[in-house]
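Case study: DEF6 guanine nucleotide exchange factor.
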Amino acid sequence: MELRAELLKSIWYAFTSLDVEKSGKVSKSQLKVLSHNLYTALNIPHDPVALEDHFRDDDDGPVSNQGYMPYLNKFILDKVVEGTFVKENVDEFCWTLCAKKNYRPKNGVGVLPDKDAFHLWCLFNFLSEDNYPLVLVPEEVEYLLKKICLAMSVELSCVDMEDFISQEAVRQSGITVWVFLDFVNTGRLTRGMEKDSVTMAIDEVYQEIAGNIIKQGYLWKKGHLRRNWNERWFSLQPSTLHYYVSEDRKECKGCIELGHNCCVEVLPEKEGKRCMFCVKTLTKTYEMSAPDTKQRQEWTTAIQTAIRLCVEGKKSLHKDLKLRRREQREERERKHTAKEEELQSLRLLQGERESKLAELELLQ
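Here is what the predicted structure looks like once written out:
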């Protein structure tokens, strides 16, 4: 269900981008093309008979979102098999469709290259509420911008942030992705930064949140056969720790499966290697060396987090964190509402008391 909800967000943008007249409906010919491309991107066998039958020409007029949903659910989303397609390809197809109609940097020039804008669009969708039209609440906007600034090693300007989220429309109903991209394209967030640095920061946050990577970086790893040490690029996800020849991740040298039978331990210095630790599974012990004690602490904590998520049956750290933030917001909102109701009751009591006092004064 989680994957379906994620796919629906991207497909919603694609559908609405085809609704040129903003009527809530799209022509059948366009929906046929959209469906055909979704079959391809999701690696589902094409079913032209069902497609033609569902959108046969004797139906009346264009199709609404509600009218397309039964077909989308039955013939496309019900057939999706996780792991048989690249979700980024689906996102990229939907982004290409909707960006043509909606993404227009002022004066035709934006700070963001198209790839960066695409990555921000994906991050926005990940963090957005599950209601349509999709919006990001102010707290999540601030969270995302802070993550990007942290990756650039700069502080988010409180003034710029306050100016942006204090706008009435943002406070009342949240922010749309196009308003969000317009803000980033003003350059207020990235002033003084090289474009390459901005791209690297956005990519880092994209890999972490949308790519579900808890931590990645270079570590020294001890071999099991030759017992020699090699520097490898490690990529940690909730159930796996992959290691590659380099950070381009083209050549994977192995994968450590994480689970309830795994643990991570700090090791003493040996064989000229410092800041050592190991990951123990039922069958093997993997010894590693970090660049410094800070990195070792970060890695051991991250691996413990990955093992915890795996044991709890959770597939994503950031989905878990997003849910916690939402629960905290809802709790704050409940407390705020309760306080307002209490104050209202006190005002009513005060009013009644003043009214009775006034009546007594009149009687005297």
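For the exam, be able to explain this: The CA atoms of residues 279 and 286 lie 5 Å apart.
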